[in-house]
Amino acid sequence: MIAKTPQPPYYAVIFSTLRTEIDEGYEEMAHKMEELAKQQEGYLGIESARNDKASGGITVSYWKSLNAISNWKNNIEHTIARDKGRALWYKKYQLRICKVERDYGFEKEDN
């Protein structure tokens, strides 16, 4: 699914991951964090993709402002999930924050 975002500018948080073999509650936590993020002020949407082996992936979340991103980062439940991710689920992750200054797209009409 492609997130419906407003006219730029807005911000994208790109979260690239390499997973460990440990799965203990990962999917449930990922779902919980997505639902919690949707409740945060300034949240605009999310897109996520995983490779076939589920060992790596990229999640992009969209936000109205840098302040909204900071508030999400400091959310206590998100902090707990992040700590658990470092301890169990991730071999490596990289987070990038970008300002979206322009966007455009294409959608084929159904016939």
Characterization of this structure:
The protein has helices spanning 26-38, 66-73, 76-89; strands at residues 10-19, 43-50, 56-63, 90-100. It is of the alpha+beta class. The protein has a single domain (10-100), classed as Alpha-Beta Plaits (2-Layer Sandwich), CATH 3.30.70.100. Strands 2-3-1-4 form a 4-stranded antiparallel beta sheet. β2 (43-50) and β3 form a beta hairpin. α1 (26-38) packs antiparallel against α3. The longest helix has 14 residues, at 76-89. 9% of the residues are buried. The mean pLDDT is 94.
CATH topology grouping: Alpha-Beta Plaits
- CATH architecture identity: 2-Layer Sandwich
Query: What is the share of helical residues?
Result: 25-40%
Number of helices: 3
**What class would the helix/strand composition place it in?**
alpha+beta
- State the CATH class: Alpha Beta
Instruction: Give the total of domains.
Output: 1
**H/E series, N to C?**
EHEEHHE
Biggest β-sheet, characterized?
Answer: 4 strands, antiparallel
Low-pLDDT parts are none
Total number of strands = 4
The shape, in one word, is globular
End-to-end separation in angstroms reads 20 Å
Mean pLDDT: 94
* Major sheet: arrangement of strands: 2-3-1-4
- Percentage of β-strand residues: 25-35%
Radius of gyration: 15 Å
Topology of this protein?
Elements lengths: L9 E10 L6 H13 L4 E8 L5 E8 L2 H8 L2 H14 E11 L11
Antiparallel strand pairs: 1-3, 1-4, 2-3
